[in-house]
Amino acid sequence: MKKTLTITILALLLIVNIGVTGFFQWPLQPNIKANVKELDQYLTEQKFNGSVLVGYQGEIIFEKGYGYQDKENGVKNTEDTAFLVGSITKQFTAAAILQLQEQGKLRVSDTLDHYFPDYPNSENITIQQLLTHQAGLPEYLGLYEEADYGKEFTVDQLLEKIRVASVKSQPGKKFQYNNTGYNLLGGIIEKVSGQSYENYLNEHIFKPAGMKQSAFGFDADKQPERAVGYLNEDFEKAPFIHPSFAYAGGAISSTLGDLFLWDRALAGDKILSEKSKQDMFQSHTNETLMPNQAYGYGMYIVEEGKSMYHPGFIDGFSSNIFRNTENDLVIIGLSNKGDSMHSMLPAILYDFSENLEQSWNGYSAKILLYLLLAVNVFVLVRWIVCLDQGKRTLKPARWYQVAFQTVLLGFISLVLLVIPFAPNFAHELFSSQRLMFVAVPIWKTAVNLVVVISTLAIIGAIQPFIKKEKAAIPWNQAAPGR
Predict the structure, then answer these.
(1) pTM, whole model, 2 decimals?
(2) Cα–Cα dist 132/288, whole Å
(3) pLDDT band for position 17 (cuts 50, 70, 90)
(4) What is the C-alpha to C-alpha distance for residues 22 and 20, in angstroms, rounded to an integer?
(5) Both ends of the chain: CA-CA distance in Å?
(6) Where are the alpha helices (H) located in 24-137, listed in sequence order?
(7) Is residue 365 predicted with pLDDT exceeding 70?
């Protein structure tokens, strides 16, 4: 009776052991919620005006509006507010060019004279150089008076002054960020596709990606919530810029949700083939405005494609979309208080990503936990079998050894379950971002120590069962006469 009861209790313990381990699902990024909480707190403290989204592994984990969509009427920003995104437009233009290349209608190696034969030096400028800001072109914005920004332009009218302006450098020799090249790319898209730039985007980019709240300029029908652009902390309204003037380098408006769909579309095959995506995300020039960065097609490339981003700025609006391909993370920030957020927003999002990368992902310990569980199960099953065989198989001293090993393994398993959540507690204890950069590595070191100790414990737990002893009787054989 006692033996049966003991075996039943041990079997229940085994079931509970497996059940508890299965219940605690190990988070791949246990620190991400704490990072988001800190980001939210920081944006609130800084009186950020706009909207921010954090997406992780295909899911939106944070989305929130801050400040005023329309200060005069007291309307607050929400996650559905539409903003002008400025130069984020460039990656849509680049994608359109690559689509046309897939269709065989152009090649990025084509020279500009195929499409604009009367443009100066066009026979020496390639589409790729336009995509990577290496065409040596002058910045068209400096050739127009600010009073002209609100006027409607055709592509030919927009490029008229550029034709007579002097080049800044020889094509292919130097990276010089400007908007002129992307406006020329918009003109190429129109000539090759037979559609306006706006219609091409609607049909071949926005529609396949499911982006129902994105437009060329603002669109009242698509975007019931449209942000008013402000220049400064005093909420001075920004002047109107006609989308035909910003054109293919900066005229698109969008929402957080639509830009998240854009990120998902680029991660899949709705918009571009795998080959085109490789070309888009590849470093084509290592000389950019920032150190340790390169430029692909319409986006900056960091650490050889590990991360990529592009800021956007147009009077009254600032934006940034930051992707971490290693963690499948995207952070999108849109602001309608342009000048005050133009330099601040990219830094906020980049710091968030860097802090997140220091979160322990738990893969190694997860594997170790399952290994420990397997050993624990082995020990418990062995214990049950030994009870069933009675005292004929193990010496009394061995029972204490098995019991100690089981308790030790259970304790280590518990420690491993608790450690991944420790950085979250650290976030509560350390309000300073810099202190967190110290705290998280400390937890990583602690995890490594536990891994080493646990490995030794596993060896110690298994060794008694595989070690042959001279006087020992095999556990599965009866000893007659005893």
Answers:
(1) 0.70
(2) 10
(3) very low
(4) 5
(5) 22
(6) 32-45, 89-102, 127-131
(7) no
